[in-house]
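Sequence in, structure out. Go.
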Amino acid sequence: MSDNLPPSTEAPMPSKPPFWRDEEKRAIVFQVVALLVVGLVSYYLYSNTQANLERQSIATGFGFLDKEASFEIGESIIEYSAADTYLRALAVGALNTLKVSLIGVVLTIILGTLIGIARLSSNWLISRLSALYIEVMQNIPVLLQLFFWYAIFYEAFPPPRQALNPIDGVFLCNRGMIFGVPEAHAAHPVMGWVFLVVLIAGYFLNRWGHKRQDLTGQSFPALRITAAAAILLPGLVWLLYGAPTAMDIPALRGFNFQGGVTVSPEFSALLLGLVIYTSAFVAEIVRAGIQSVGKGQIEAAMAIGLRPGKVLQLVVLPQALRVIIPPLTSQMLNLTKNSSLAIAIGYADFVAVTNTMINQTGQAIEGVALIMLVFLFFSLSTSLFMNWYNKKMKLVER
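Output:
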């Protein structure tokens, strides 16, 4: 009986490949080996550095941050004196870097967008002037531009005793621009908080207005309401506090001005150099983004009676932003990192303050590590925000 049974149709079990031919296992082995090599190299560098520091009797660690800094800083957003600690001095430098970076990014986006749009203008003169600006500013190194503007501020303006006074309470000299500001009053912080609350409420009101328009087709003037409230409500607070009008007017005392607010030549030169240099690249990004929008979109918008300004605002820019945002993020990061060149013209940014700290304490490794961490934090924060905005603006596929 058994001899008459049909042969088995079951396929033979495939044999396992040898270890060295199994791609998954090889990948695991390669990763483990790479990790071991990186670990060994890191351990060698660390142990070698520690041995050299001990041989030269150089202390390590961040304990020096609690010691007295013993040096002044020309510009500071927060109160600072030479009797403060190195930690507070570093905080002053970080805030100075943050100040020039934030203001620079805003001005760069505005100027770059205007020049990018002007580059596509049908007016021959405007288009050629924009192209000239882009070509010239892109090809002059940013450091040379910083030196140029710094020299302009010191050579073009007179000393404080011969300061220019174009407007009452405003003075221009080689120490910077000095102008009057309202004296400190309890109403000012309250007005600031009210203004901030109005902006936050306006953001949610604008979102609600868009949802309402999607459902009903009726627009809601959220921006106009927010703008009116941002003016009227802080003004109402100002009136409730007695409408304070006292001003802190600068006055010449000895060899310099006292009172008011001073915008230093170092800050002005750094800001101008970074904005003018980076805006040339942003202008090309904006131009490319606008040209990526199909002509049919523009023709359709004009066919329904939209004016050129509305076509740009409602049709072109919303679509162009999806092309503009990724390279724009890189330029924002470049501006922030290029701010470290401030040390060349004497602006007290984080790099300059840290360099002074290193010269006094000899803690070079710790100082360089702090510079790397601070700029890494600024860059990652910018990237996270822009990635969120890019995700928000991308096309939603159905």
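Check: The longest strand covers residues 164-167. Residues 123 and 138 are 23 Å apart (CA to CA).
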